[in-house]
Amino acid sequence: MSQVDATVAPAAPVNPRSRVILASLIGTSIEFYDFYVYATAAVLVFPALFFPSDNPVAGQLASFAVFGVAFIARPIGSILFGHFGDRIGRKGTLVASLLTMGIATVIIGLLPTALTPGWEILAPALLVVMRFAQGVGLGGEWSGAALLATENAPAGKRAIYGTFPQLGAPIGFIIANGVFLILSINLSQEDFLSWGWRVPFVASALLVIIGLYVRLKLIETPVFTKAVERGEVATLPLARVFKTSWRPLILGTFIMLATYVLFYLMTAFTLSYGTTAKTVEAAAAAAEAGGKKFDASTFVAGLGYTRNDFLVMLIIGCVFFGIFTLVAGPLAEKYGRRKTLIVTTIGIIIFGGLFVPLFGAGVIGVMALLIIGFTLMGLTFGPMGSVLPELFPTNVRYTGSAISYNVASIIGAALAPTIALTLLGVADGSPVLVGLYLSLAAVITLVALIISKETRDIDYDV
Predict the structure, then answer these.
(1) Residue 38 sits in a domain of what CATH number?
(2) CA atoms of 346 and 365, how far apart (whole Å)
(3) Which residues contact 449 (CB under 8 A, 6 or more apart)?
(4) Residue 461: inside a domain, yes or no?
(5) Contacts of 100 (CB under 8 A, 6+ apart)
(6) For residues 82 and 75, what is the distance between their CA atoms, to the nearest angstrom?
(7) Out of 80, 291, 317, 327, which residue is the most buried by the measure of CB atoms under 10 Å away?
(8) Structure letter (DSSP) for residue 8
(9) Where do the TM regions start and end (predicted)?
């Protein structure tokens, strides 16, 4: 062996590009599938099964309140999984977050309902606990997946690689709603309410097994490995991130705000508003057919679409979400994250003013609203996979990006469907205030973007 050959160190093992893409994509797809299965059920079945009431609005509000519990739990998950992600590495933490979310989702599918004798109080309580566990799992999932993708990305490709975990959101949404749609078409209303709604939750177990197999084959990211070799791992990442990176924490939270408000208005709110009866007479007839009392004083009119028709419209809109999530990566790489997001956020501000004319323009107008909204969602969500992690140094990157992402979920998403439903009632069924609510959130995000700095060219190893 020559002297040169003897002194050349072996190349450090790296994750193949295909494995990085698949592991970051499949994990978030599963996690968001689990999350959206609940969001869809919260509109379609949980008000009747877990929060039965003579007042349909009260049941819907209770269901949305439990929907919001997960967002309260997500910052807790970000602190928990962020600590271990920055202390022991990204790989093991991602496996744990996936298990937490998956187990909670399966258990929801096995719970008795409040209609079961003796379970009137315990069933809703257990639903709250499992929803909380879902939030903890997702609180640790996103940041780890984003770091897995971007810390393995070649130079000049971080924004592009960062879109792959983001693509899990539309994929998970489409799968979750597609499963509900198939069940709804093939089952009677009685069978769907009796057992059909459980299938998407229990089926999550198979998806989790696939995700675990892919993630267990990963090795640690090279960026984190270098931090370990240099002795730069933080002993207490939470304390360190608040001490050294408090400004990026605040900016990251508000940079993400409009994205969250937009997405949960486009999904949970539009599904509720779109499938609510148009008139008091139609709502009263539906209540009578279901053997329920109807209180006209609490009724807020909607668009009157059938559940199946509106699910199809949502799935079509979400295809644009996926497409423009991928488009956003190259745009953020070419023009910078900040400029791309500023232009998109201005678009969201304008879009908020289109709620009334588009919602009132029949099926074409509603479809246009969904397509425009989900297109903007892709353009704003895509760059987040790179911009939030880039705000923080390696030794607190998991914790910092996770806290910003998940605190934004409380401010922007936990209360979004409930606020929208309340504003709808205040405006006598008009979505005008809902649109203004979205525009206001986008203005706050725009301010955060204007005072932030471009992160495209930072050194990711520090």
Answers:
(1) 1.20.1250.20
(2) 21
(3) 255, 338, 341, 342, 345
(4) no
(5) 77, 133, 136, 137, 140
(6) 10
(7) 317
(8) P
(9) 57-81, 93-115, 121-148, 160-183, 195-216, 249-271, 310-329, 341-360, 366-391, 403-426, 432-451
Question: What does the alpha-carbon distance between residue 359 and residue 22 come to, in Å, rounded to a whole number?
Answer: 38
Give the residue from 153, 111, 108, 114 showing the smallest Cα distance to 134. Answer: 108
User: Is 8 part of any domain?
Assistant: no
Residue 214 domain flag: yes
Please enumerate in sequence order all residues whose Cβ is within 8 A of that of 270, keeping only pairs 6 or more positions apart, or say none. 310, 314, 369, 370
178 assigned to some structural domain: yes
Instruction: In whole angstroms, give the CA distance from residue 384 to residue 254.
Output: 12
pLDDT of 211-266, one tens digit each? 888 888 878 778 888 888 888 788 888 999 999 999 999 999 999 999 999 988 89
Closest CA to 349 of 253, 276, 453, 450: 450
Q: Which domain holds residue 203?
A: 15-232+244-451
Residue the block writes with tokens 């209303």: 189
CA–CA distance, 191 with 45 (Å, rounded to integer): 12
Q: How far is C-alpha 288 from the chain's CA centre?
A: 36
SS3 string of 43-68? HHCHHHHCCCCCCHHHHHHHHHHHHH
Read off the pLDDT of residues 139-190 as tens digits, 9 standing for 90 and up. 888 888 888 888 888 888 899 999 998 998 899 888 888 888 888 888 888 8
- Domains of the chain: total: 1
Sign (positive or negative) of CA dihedral 368, 372, 373, 375: positive
293: how many CB neighbours lie within 10 A of its CB? 11
What's the CA gap between 66 and 49, in Å, rounded? Answer: 13
234: left (phi over 0), alpha (psi -120 to 50) or beta: beta
pLDDT in tens, 348-405: 999 999 998 998 888 999 999 999 999 999 999 999 999 999 999 888 998 999 999 9
What is the secondary structure of 246-310 as a DSSP string? HHHHHHHHHHTHHHHHHHHIIIIIHHHHHHS-SSHHHHHHHHHHTT----GGG--------HHHH
User: 337-352 vs 307-335: helix axis angle to the nearest 10?
Assistant: 150
For 316, half-sphere exposure in the C-beta direction (CA atoms, 13 angstrom radius) is 15
Query: What's the rounded Cα separation, in Å, for the pair 326 and 288?
Result: 47
pLDDT reported for residue 8: 39
Tokens found for residue 449 = 């973007």
Are the CB atoms for 51 and 124 separated by under 8 Å?
yes
- 433-459 b/e (C-beta count within 10 Å ≥ 16 → b): bbbebbbebbbbbbebbeebeebbeee
At 110, the amino acid letter reads L
Compute the residue count for the chain.
462
CA neighbor of 147 nearest in space, from 246, 195, 81, 194: 81
